[in-house]
Amino acid sequence: MNVLERLFELSARETTVGREVRGGITTFMAMAYIILLNPIILAGAKDITGAQLSIGQLTTATALAAAVSTLLMAFVGNAPFGLAAGLGLNAVVAYQAAPYMTWAQAMGLVVLEGLVIIILAVSGVRRLIMDSIPLALKHAISVGIGMFITLIGLVDAGFVSGGGATPLRLGTTGHLTGWPVTVFCAGLLLMIVLFIRKTPGAILLSILITTVLAIVVNSLATIDPKTWGVVVPRVPDSIVSTPDFGLVGQFDLFGGFVTAGALTASIVLFTLVLSGFFDAMGTIIGVSDEAGLVDAKGRVPRLGRILTVDGIAGMVGGSVSASANTVFVESAAGVGEGARTGLASVATGGLLALTMLFTPLAEVVPAAAAAPALVLVGALMMTQSRKVPWDDLEMAIPAFLTIALMPFTYSITNGVGAGVIAYTLIKAARGKWGEIPWLLWVVSLIFLAYFAVDGLF
């Protein structure tokens, strides 16, 4: 216990070993889907030669990179963050990079992205940028992420969907239909009741009970497997599987600049860096705020180490062909369960490592069972909105844009960018030039280029 106290400062953060372990397991269960989803996204694309990556090798690579990155965060950053292949980042690799270069060259750009982020972190530039963002806007980022993960949970569970007469609708037809949605609703109601009653391990316990319910329902009812999403709840045929490390080390750092051309490769690298930079920044601020780890000025402890690990995670992901790894917003589920230190990440990272051997078990928890955690934690993160000065329009409008655009555009980066640009513009329009940190001018210009990049090239 003394060793754990020295490593993770449990007493200082008012937590216990039990709470940390429960939180770490909850984070794992909330993000385990990426071990199956990331291979599907990457294997669904072809590179310039027509080659496709192996699902089996990608599954091993995804779990390996996630485990290494999360354990680094545990021992170096002492933060309750799970890391894995970032959604959006993997899509850039698969559909923006691979069609113009080989897979090895695309992964080389991912390694370079991680290196750039490390340089920004070690030099202190990344921390300066984070510290230059107004405190109220940081609280808005927390609220926006809460809305974002709520929408992710609702969509993954099939409770809402796109299409039809409106951009979003209830269920897939305008009405709630099907057993998976029923299981999700039952799981959400159970989780709310247990959480409100302060049941220890409420979120984790609800996920486990709902998973068992989903397996029973799937075995007794006639259900189209596709309606469950990526993971179909069923008793696995086997428990142990053999990992395939064939993609480890398959990257080419600078070949993409030759094959695709300097301009195309640079645009891909710029997109990866910007998305990885601000997605992680928003998640770190939001989840840390929810965990009560920020000080009165909105600063996160050990931020430099956390940001450096995030950059290393990007390099790790590229070096094993799993795409860029980054801090996962689903870490908020573990924080909701009580996680406050890196000990939770030890539990998460250990379970991610085990999935290389026990991949069939990762195929048991469906979105219908894990998604309620995202909805509940989203509600908890919404409480940060009370810290935004809504009676001050100079802050209220940027805060609103930050909150609204995260779920509406399915991107943390877009929300942060809109908020920063609006804040800078409004302060300048009011003649309050002295209240605008010079770095915000730089960041605003970068975001303007980011939003316009497709139109310019």
Automatic annotation (TrEMBL):
Matching Pfam families: Xan_ur_permease
Keyword Membrane tagged: yes
Membrane topology: Multi-pass membrane protein
Domain of life of the organism encoding this protein: Bacteria
Signal peptide feature range: none
Subcellular location: Endomembrane system
Primary subcellular site in the record, as a coarse category: membrane
UniProt keyword list: Membrane, Transmembrane, Transmembrane helix, Transport
Family: Belongs to the nucleobase:cation symporter-2 (NCS2) (TC 2.A.40) family. Azg-like subfamily.
PANTHER family per record: XANTHINE/URACIL PERMEASE C887.17-RELATED, XANTHINE_URACIL PERMEASE C887.17-RELATED
Record's protein name: AGZA family xanthine/uracil permease-like MFS transporter
Organism: Nonomuraea africana
